[in-house]
Design brief:
single chain; 177 residues; mainly beta; four-stranded antiparallel sheet; 0% helix
Amino acid sequence: SALDYDRLDGRIYWSDMELKTISRAFLNGSALEVVVEFGLDYPRGLAVDWMAGNLYWADAGTGRVEVARLDGSSRRVLVWRELDSPECLVVDTKGEKIVWSSWGQEPVIERATLDGSMREVLVQGVGRSTGLTIDINRSNLYWTDQDRLTISFTSLLTPLSTVTTILSTGHPYALTL
């Protein structure tokens, strides 16, 4: 499951892999509602673009990256071709892109513009990446690698740039900045 927050509206959004839904509620638990309830299989990655009022998610079961308005309306598929098990997802609000990890035979971290166009590989040769987090001030992408048991980062300014490992102990899974 995934969780994100809309700082303008004060709601949390989450995916439920058992119910195969995406829901939202205010922080006090009121106004609980399901915003996406059909066509989901394994919605692991989820990100709120609070600036544009959109909700993005990666579904490893359907092999798609999708978007909808925060209320679930205007849903559409953004990326599906040659996409193998998309898992985690984050919105780069400064760069106006979505970034996701794919856990297929050759795991990668990719990105595309917010409408799904201009898709490119950002990092290759990684393991199963989780906890994608962006430092917008430094234009860096951070992630945990479930195969190498590391926390790493790279620059968002140059695709396929140097990857730096900053921790390689324990079993890190999630990150936040």
